[in-house]
Design brief:
Blueprint: H1 10-22, H2 26-32, H3 34-47, E1 53-57, H4 63-67, E2 72-77, H5 80-89, E3 94-97, H6 103-107, E4 115-119, H7 128-133, E5 144-150, H8 155-163, H9 178-187, E6 190-198, H10 208-216, E7 228-235, E8 245-252, H11 259-265, E9 272-279, H12 286-296, E10 301-306, H13 312-322, E11 327-330, H14 342-350, E12 356-360, H15 373-390, E13 402-405, H16 406-414, H17 427-437, E14 441-445, H18 460-479
Helix pairs in contact: 15-18, 16-17
């Protein structure tokens, strides 16, 4: 790899000179702000799992990169002094001296990477849009660009902290609001998947800082005052192979009257389409009906299995685990989401418009009796809560119809231990997992129909209480960390 430096602008020369001069004291500065850096690291570890391939741009002394424990880690910084410190402290990682705005240097890095991390480096860039544009060659469709930066509201306080010796001095920096960052990445053909403010109190303050940052900082209105912002982006120039096959997983319990209708009504929207019925210990001869329908429609690729455990989540994941399709789609066995809507979910996945596709029953008018009034009100409230919790818009978390690439489900499944098996429905297991992966969520409004057979298996009050527990669970595992 190259280690030569191209000519820098006068402003960058000033920044580099200060970085070289302060490199021997870098860890002293880090120690002074140990609480702040520990809080910063907590959220970055949530976003970046151990064992990822990580490129850090503007890596300084390499300590953050080392803390993330990548399987392959590369750090780039234009300060020779900082890189010398990094190489000495972390010989297991790769460090390169160079300007991250130098297209030729970036192109020589050995990618692709799972994560490209830019923490506090955006303030030193001469051309933010150009720097982002250089990164597409290091990305795949799954790569996430994570940008961490100080809130523009805190800029005066940070300059005061520098003046009194609480923060390492910096020359004038780019001061950007989250909307500015979102606009710049969009100009460079990246898409901001989510933006998250965190860290309200940067000092320990006898233990109060941890409590404030964990429980108070994430709250609506208060979060706008946070010191740190993180924007998670995906490349719009990198695409995975176009999927050609799909698996429609249909969990069924006491749905005898809907089995044949499901087969007949599912459009043949993919070159290869399999339907997987997962039967959940029915008492109305649902299993026998599935067997009859498979025999009656030999022209279709229909499979059946009995779920190994209990609950819809167990049925869905059992079906996903045996599915062969490039895309996995859930269709509830009650057919209240019309099967004719499934091509929309397929098209959103196929074209890359979204990576996690969620149906929404709460946009179009629905059939009478399709959803009871109290259920409708509760769903509206929960949609607001979960949009805040996940930092992506969700209008209907409990719509059973969802779609995801099989490759993304495999990654999601590997990370399920973070949340545990907490969700009997499976909806939140998928939504929370997709959020942690930084998948782009897209909602598709559907016409919600009333049942034509059987009775609902949802209990308003028992499952409503369970949803409240989900809100608390999500707050503790996603926001209050």
């Amino acid at each position: 790899m190259r280690s030569d430096l191209l000519p820098l602008s006068p402003r960058k020369q000033q920044i580099r000179h200060l970085a070289d001069a302060s490199a021997p004291q870098r860890r002293e500065w880090l120690a002074r702000a140990a609480f702040f850096h520990a809080e910063d690291l907590l959220y970055l570890k949530f976003l970046i799992g151990e064992g990822a391939r990580v490129l850090e741009l503007g890596c300084g002394s390499g300590d953050l990169l080392a803390e993330l424990r990548p399987s392959y880690g590369v750090g780039v910084d234009f300060s020779e002094g900082m890189i010398a410190q990094a190489r000495q402290a972390h010989p297991e990682l790769t460090f390169v001296v160079g300007d991250i705005e130098d297209r030729s240097l970036v192109s020589e890095l050995r990618g692709p990477f799972d994560v490209i991390l830019m923490v506090d480096a955006i303030g030193a860039l001469d051309d933010c849009q150009g720097a982002f544009e250089h990164l597409h060659g290091l990305c795949t469709r799954e790569t996430r660009l994570i940008i961490g930066y100080f809130s523009h509201l805190w800029y005066p306080a940070l300059k005061i902290a520098e003046a009194v010796g609480l923060k390492m001095p910096q020359p004038p920096q780019n001061v950007l609001a989250p909307d500015d960052v979102g606009a710049l990445v969009a100009l460079a053909d990246f898409e901001a998947v989510k933006s998250e403010p965190r860290l309200l109190l940067p000092i320990r303050l006898l233990g109060l800082g941890r409590i404030v940052n964990r429980f108070l900082a994430p709250l609506p209105l208060v979060r706008g005052l946070c010191l740190r912002h993180y924007t998670v982006c995906r490349s719009l120039r990198q695409h995975a192979p176009v999927p050609v096959s799909a698996s429609v997983v249909i969990p069924t319990r006491n749905e005898h009257g809907n089995i044949e209708a499901a087969v007949r009504r599912v459009p043949r929207f993919a070159e290869e389409l399999e339907i997987i019925f997962v039967e959940g210990h029915s008492v109305d001869r649902t299993w026998e009906e599935i067997e009859r329908v498979i025999a009656a429609y030999p022209q279709y690729d229909i499979k059946a299995m009995r779920q190994p455990g209990n609950g819809k989540a167990n049925a869905v994941f059992a079906g996903f685990d045996v599915a062969r399709g490039d895309a996995l789609i859930i269709l509830d066995g009650d057919l209240t989401v019309p099967p004719e809507q499934l091509p929309k979910f397929w098209e959103a996945i196929r074209t890359g418009k979204g990576e996690f596709i969620n149906g929404s029953r709460l946009v179009y008018p629905m059939d009478k009796q399709a959803m009871r009034f109290l259920n409708l009100v509760a769903n509206k409230i929960f949609s607001l809560l979960f949009s805040w919790l996940l930092s992506q818009r969700f209008t209907d978390t409990l719509c059973g119809t969802k779609a995801i690439r099989r490759s993304d489900y495999a990654r999601l499944k590997c990370g399920r231990s973070y949340f545990g098996e907490f969700d009997p429905f499976g909806d939140f297991d998928l939504i929370f997992g997709a959020s942690k992966l930084g998948l782009k969520a897209v909602e598709i409004p559907i016409r919600y129909a009333s049942r034509s057979y059987g009775e609902t298996q949802i209990s308003r009050f028992r499952h409503g209480l369970m949803l409240l527990r989900m809100v608390l669970f999500a707050f503790m595992r996603i926001k209050a960390m």
